[in-house]
């Protein structure tokens, strides 16, 4: 009784089938993952896997070249030229975004702004793409406030509009977007943000989505919020230095991050979604019977 | 160009009407708040206003006695007996909750568990209440994945089901809930949590909601995540000590927090919701035309 709320998810930590059978009718997410088959997991393509090293550890980001190919290519160029090394997290706005870019752009002395090297300075927006029936599509059954259809595609939370034939990655917790100026062509991937609060779905179709954080979110979400408007840090010492960003493909195989992501077209993922829609463990009085797109995390695991 | 994403909300910071007229068709939230009338703001009833003092500052919580009267009364008793003074934040789970309670309950030596004094050890659940037409009701127009109707009532995000005649405060960012054990009667207000991520709406109707954080969220949301399952801190030194929790009504008037909350039945709040639904400033290519309940923050301001 003195550790209330603990059992809310404790059932998910119990892996003994006998006990599980006693306390709930349906398997918990933890049990489902334990029962998953190896082929239901995939290793992100090293050409799409970014390893961002911060003082506190590593943030792993999977790029989404099927949705934003020009941005993925430009980010790869920036990474290969070590553009991000020594840049910083400059902005953390509560319940919104953590953003990293060239801090020199925010300082009075703009003489030290880092050049973009071989990367393009402007890019077409790539906010949406034509629906491609060849891409995986795992629809969700409960609708969405913002879009006609939502689901998962290649591990990303995606919305679709059959009327326009377009689809786009949505701004959920952990989504990594391309910061830009007012001009829609001004984004180039040199400034990126990650969503750290309630999904700001109003950003959908207004910004290019570069990918998704698949590990290390807490290194971005638990940072002190900046005191200036929009969460900018006012004291340069508050900024978090980016030690390096590397593409896994550019690392020797032995040094690549060893991480797997659950396939969103797998049977286990479908069961996870259903388990989140209808929790039947003893803690829950009323199963929701519904789930919204951004409340479903795509599991990853380190080897 | 070198401070991309900045202008996403910069338009909201510009208060010059002339410039505003040049850059967008509709007023920004910042402009709307600047134009609000004094009577559109309310001071929370001091009997419902908690002031939690942490090492980093004050978190202000407004209780919701019209929704959870027995819990509000029990929490007032606990606060008046200084129950929370010296307790701690024991758990921070990324994209979910920050929880505070008696840390002695988590330690091996349970001899030092603080007694509840005059407060009740168990309470009826109070997960939902009968819809009361006398309470303010400001409905939202865009639907909801989880409930037949959603809107705001007395400053709180609320869902309703006309079929059952019930309504309940929803688990949005900043909602403060009553932790409990499996037994629905085991919650008593001595352990509380605040939502710090994507709204976990599956908790709705399964936990009593005590109220909402109206100031100081970043003191709860930016804390280091705990390494143990469910975000519990493993090292006692990681816990954040609660210096005190006081009811504003118990403080001399001069020492009470001076904070106002925008009335959710005000014309300005309606305009804010519309401005979030359809952003017309130059940054946005496609206005969402929709807004979900938990993406609408209720503004507060300190005097």
Q: What does the model show?
A:
Two copies of one chain form a homodimer. Chain A has 303 residues and is α+β, with helices and mostly antiparallel strands. Chain A folds into two domains: 73 residues, no CATH class; 215 residues, Beta Barrel (Cyclophilin). Chain A is built from six helices and 17 strands. Chain A is globular, with a radius of gyration of 20 Å. In chain A, 51% of the residues are buried. At the A-B interface, helix 1 and strand 5 of A face helix 1 and strand 5 of B.
List the helices and strands and how they pair.
2 copies of one chain form a homodimer.
Chain A: H1 7-10, H2 17-23, H3 29-35, E1 41-42, E2 49-54, E3 57-63, H4 69-80, E4 88-93, E5 97-101, E6 129-130, E7 138-139, E8 149-153, E9 156-161, E10 166-169, E11 175-178, E12 192-195, E13 209-215, H5 218-221, E14 240-241, E15 244-247, E16 259-262, H6 267-277, E17 300-302
Antiparallel strand pairs in A: 1-16, 2-3, 2-15, 3-13, 4-5, 4-14, 5-12, 6-10, 7-8, 8-9, 9-10, 11-12, 11-13, 16-17
Helix pairs in contact in A: 3-6
Name a few traits of the molecule.
alpha+beta, 2 domains, Cyclophilin, 15% helix, homodimer, 303 residues, 9-stranded antiparallel β-sheet, 5-stranded antiparallel β-sheet
């Amino acid at each position: 009784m003195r550790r209330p709320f603990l059992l809310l998810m404790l059932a998910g930590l119990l892996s003994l089938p006998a006990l599980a059978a006693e306390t709930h009718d349906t398997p918990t997410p933890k049990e489902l993952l334990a029962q998953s088959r190896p082929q239901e997991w995939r290793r992100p393509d090293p050409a799409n896997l970014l390893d961002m090293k911060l003082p506190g550890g590593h943030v792993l980001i999977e790029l989404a070249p099927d949705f934003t190919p020009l941005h993925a290519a430009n980010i790869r160029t920036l990474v290969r030229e070590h553009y991000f090394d020594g840049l910083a997290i400059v902005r953390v706005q509560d319940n919104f975004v953590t953003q990293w870019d060239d801090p020199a752009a925010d300082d009075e002395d703009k003489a030290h702004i880092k050049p973009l090297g071989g990367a393009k300075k402007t890019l077409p927006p790539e906010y949406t793409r034509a629906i491609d029936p060849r891409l995986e599509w795992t629809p969700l059954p409960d609708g969405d406030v913002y879009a006609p259809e939502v689901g998962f595609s290649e591990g990303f939370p995606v919305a679709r509009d059959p009327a326009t034939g377009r689809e786009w990655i949505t701004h959920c917790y952990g989504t990594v977007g391309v910061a830009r100026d007012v001009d829609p062509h001004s984004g180039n991937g040199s400034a990126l943000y990650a969503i750290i609060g309630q999904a700001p779905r109003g950003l959908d179709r207004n910004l290019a989505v570069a990918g998704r954080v698949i590990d290390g979110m807490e290194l971005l979400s638990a940072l002190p919020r900046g005191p200036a408007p929009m969460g900018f840090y006012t004291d340069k010492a508050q900024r978090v230095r980016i030690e390096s960003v590397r593409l896994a493909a550019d690392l020797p195989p032995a040094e690549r991050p060893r991480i797997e992501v659950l396939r969103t077209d797998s049977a286990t993922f479908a069961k996870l979604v259903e388990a989140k829609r209808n929790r039947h463990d003893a803690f829950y009085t009323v199963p929701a019977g519904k789930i919204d797109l951004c409340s479903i995390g795509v599991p990853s695991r380190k080897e």
